[in-house]
Amino acid sequence: QVQLVESGGGLVQAGGSLTLSCAASGRTFSSYAMGWFRQAPGKEREFVAAINWSGSSSYYADSVKGRFTISRDNAKITVYLQMNRLKPEDTAVYYCAAGNAVGYLSVNYYYTRGNYAYWGQGTQVTVSS
To answer: Which of 6, 10, 73, 90 lies 20 to 30 A from 39 at CA?
Structure first.
């Protein structure tokens, strides 16, 4: 089984930055896709960003493209989400997730919430006006 623990959330003003971290354990981290999702009160959990097994390809929701950057450090068994120019609409609980398959995957795989088998507890990000 995989254990995921997020950290780095907090309260920031609009236009500010935060970097989230997700520490993983329990399996060969470098073999799997990793993603970030978020959920605001009263809304569905939505895709934010994902990265493939090698870190060579990244995928982003249109709402965060150009502002957020996902990266991974397989030696540290950690995935990151750097968030810049934050907006109030970015306020949500952010979840780290690990994919359920290995190898070369289709692009669509990364955007599909159901393809992520393991989830962290989430970390709150609040952006004030």
So the answer is: 73
Question: Of 30, 7, 20, whose CA–CA distance to 86 is shortest?
Answer: 20
Answer for the pair 45, 36: CB distance below 8 angstroms, yes or no.
Answer: no
Distance of alpha carbon 108 from alpha carbon 57, whole angstroms: 13
Q: Which candidate, 119, 113, 115, places its Cα nearest to that of 102?
A: 115
Give CA 108 to chain center in angstroms.
Answer: 16
> pLDDT tens digits, residue range 46-99?
999 999 988 899 999 999 999 999 999 877 789 999 999 999 999 999 999 999
CA angle 36, 41, 45 (to 5 degrees): 30
Average pLDDT, the chain: 93
| Cβ partners under 8 Å of residue 67, min gap 6 | 83, 84, 85, 86
